[in-house]
């Protein structure tokens, strides 16, 4: 198995969205809290409707992933999740929306819209960051090529100055009789 990489979302105030297995996900306990339902009910509905939750909608964290996530996030160590009996589910953007459908409550639908907007905002921010990075790379390449040109011009100028600084050679006497 490849090395697990889990990255927390740096945005304070937003639902805790993490990157796990190259997917942005939210923990089942956070989702249940947002939807205003008990965690047990959410997980029960997911198990009853497994065909609605393929691996790109929701998946169970491995023990290693859960341990890494808990170590990186103090709130997970001290609050919900410290004494869990089972590994938690995590939900991608599509899984969040599907969970709202299987829970079928007004609050779940309202919150799923909010969470979907949060995922979209994160995607837009990532796209903007990538676009900015591309522009920065292009600028760096242009500056580098200009610097190379300037370095050559400076080297030529210094060479000319060195030539001017050399003392003039005394005139040579012609060879032979004059």
Q: What's the SSE blueprint?
A:
Elements: E1 6-8, E2 17-20, E3 23-27, H1 28-35, H2 39-48, E4 58-60, H3 63-72, H4 74-78, E5 89-91, H5 93-103, H6 106-165
Antiparallel strand pairs: 1-2, 2-3, 3-5, 4-5
Number of domains as seen in the coordinates: 1
What percentage of amino acids are in beta strands? 5-15%
Number of DSSP helices? Answer: 6
CATH architecture: Roll
Low-confidence stretches: 7-14
**CATH topology call:** Mlu1-box Binding Protein, DNA-binding Domain
Report on the biggest sheet: 5 strands, antiparallel
Structural class of the secondary structure composition? alpha+beta
What is the CATH C level class, in words?
Alpha Beta
Return the string of H and E elements.
EEEHHEHHEHH
The portion of residues assigned to helices is 55-70%
Q: How many β strands by DSSP?
A: 5
Please compute the radius of gyration using only Cα atoms.
32 Å
Specify the overall morphology. rod-shaped
In the sheet with the most strands, the strands line up as 1-2-3-5-4
Compute the average pLDDT: 80
Characterization of the model:
- By secondary structure, the protein is an alpha+beta fold.
- The chain has helices spanning 28-35, 39-48, 63-72, 74-78, 93-103, 106-165; strands spanning 6-8, 17-20, 23-27, 58-60, 89-91.
- It has a five-stranded antiparallel beta sheet with strand order 1-2-3-5-4.
- β1 and β2 form a beta hairpin.
Task: Offer a quick outline of the entry.
It is built from six helices and five strands.
List keywords for this structure.
178 residues, Mlu1-box Binding Protein, DNA-binding Domain, rod-shaped, 6 helices, five-stranded antiparallel sheet, alpha+beta
């Amino acid at each position: 198995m490849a090395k697990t990489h889990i990255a927390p979302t740096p945005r304070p105030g937003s639902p805790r969205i993490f990157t796990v297995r190259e997917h942005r996900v939210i923990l089942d306990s956070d989702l249940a809290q947002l939807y205003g339902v008990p965690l047990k009910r959410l997980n029960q509905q997911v198990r009853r409707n497994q065909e609605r939750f393929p691996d790109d909608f929701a998946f169970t964290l491995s023990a290693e992933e859960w341990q890494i996530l808990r170590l990186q996030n103090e709130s997970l160590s001290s609050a919900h999740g410290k004494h869990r009996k089972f590994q938690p589910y995590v939900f991608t953007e599509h899984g969040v929306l599907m969970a709202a459908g299987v829970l079928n409550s007004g609050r779940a639908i309202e919150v799923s819209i909010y969470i979907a907007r949060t995922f979209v905002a994160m995607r837009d921010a990532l796209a903007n960051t990538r676009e900015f990075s591309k522009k920065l790379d292009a600028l760096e390449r242009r500056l580098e090529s200009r610097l190379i040109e300037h370095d050559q011009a400076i080297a030529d100028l210094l060479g000319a100055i060195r030539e001017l600084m050399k003392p003039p050679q005394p005139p040579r006497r012609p060879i032979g009789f004059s």
